[in-house]
Amino acid sequence: MRILVIGAGALGGYFGGRLLAAGRDVTFLVRPRRAALLAERGLEIISVKGGLQLAHPPTVTADKLNQHYDLVLLSCKAFDLTDAIKSFAPAIGPQTMILPVLNGLLHLDILASHFGAEHVLGGLSKISATLDAEGRIHHLSSFHSISFGEQNGARTERIEALAETLRSSGFDAPLSENILAEMWNKWVFIAAAASLGCLMRAEVGDIVATGAASYGKTLLSECAAIAARHNFPQDAQGLQFGEKMLTEAGSAFKPSMLRDIERGQQTEAHHIVGDLLRRSGDLPTPILQIADANLKVYEARRAREAGA
């Protein structure tokens, strides 16, 4: 199976590097600067699961992409999706599977509108990783997985072939028969966490210390109600985990969206918070609405200052 990994950053580089080290046929679609760095220094992964140093990983730039691939692994930021689609479009053939591991669900509709729903799998990743100034990938935790499946849950020939390709590739890759439910579960939690952290501009422990723990519970309930409205009710165990994460005294947990704000960077607010709110219908979601407005103000100010 010929695999095109979009980008060689923290996620694409990590999972693509593991696949390459396991002998899979992997090519990274990268920008010229990243291609030059990989040619010079190779792809390095620093991880408690075992480090890797891969010399001369196969790369291609968008202007040289002229072949179809069996699988496109897509792990870009949601706000980069439009540009990413333009770059990898020539790789999509009649049988190509696209496996996106972006947050939320809006990207499924966008990808389907460009390539057809039949090409788009469901997927999500669980990993904490970052790219340092020298281009090395640091895996920051013990978990590293990609869950995937047909959106309708079918056990098709192609999804079984993909499961075989991802098996024993150096990371966990469970084949799911209910991948959309798993994606909704993740979405509910990260939307609630992002909303809480960005509203309060604080770690969970500091929020709890001020007596404001109830806001985390409320946001989780509002987000879960939206999922249930779309026939993806949250299980009790998942909600208990989410509530613990958002109300634990002394916790240093901080959502990645808040880290983006602290660095003055663009956020995925539209895709994670805004799109979930758009699906709320007539459900009461007062705190989520305030969080969405807060994030819109941040993005508007950021855009204005960038253009000044």
Task: Report helical residue fraction.
Answer: 40-55%
CATH first level of the largest domain? Alpha Beta
CATH superfamily of the largest domain: NAD(P)-binding Rossmann-like Domain
Rounded mean pLDDT is: 96
| Parts with pLDDT < 50 across at least 5 consecutive residues | none
Tally of individual helices: 12
Description:
It is a single chain. The chain folds into 2 domains: 2-177, NAD(P)-binding Rossmann-like Domain (Rossmann fold); 182-302, N-(1-d-carboxylethyl)-l-norvaline Dehydrogenase, domain 2 (Orthogonal Bundle), CATH 1.10.1040.10. α3 links the parallel β6 and β7 (92-100). The protein has 12 helices and 9 strands. Helix content is 47%, strand content 19%. It has helices at 10-21, 32-41, 81-88, 106-115, 157-166, 179-200, 204-209, 213-229, 236-247, 256-262, 269-278, 286-307; strands at 2-6, 25-29, 43-46, 52-54, 59-60, 69-74, 92-100, 122-131, 137-149. It is an alpha/beta fold. The chain has a 5-stranded parallel β-sheet, sandwiched between helices.
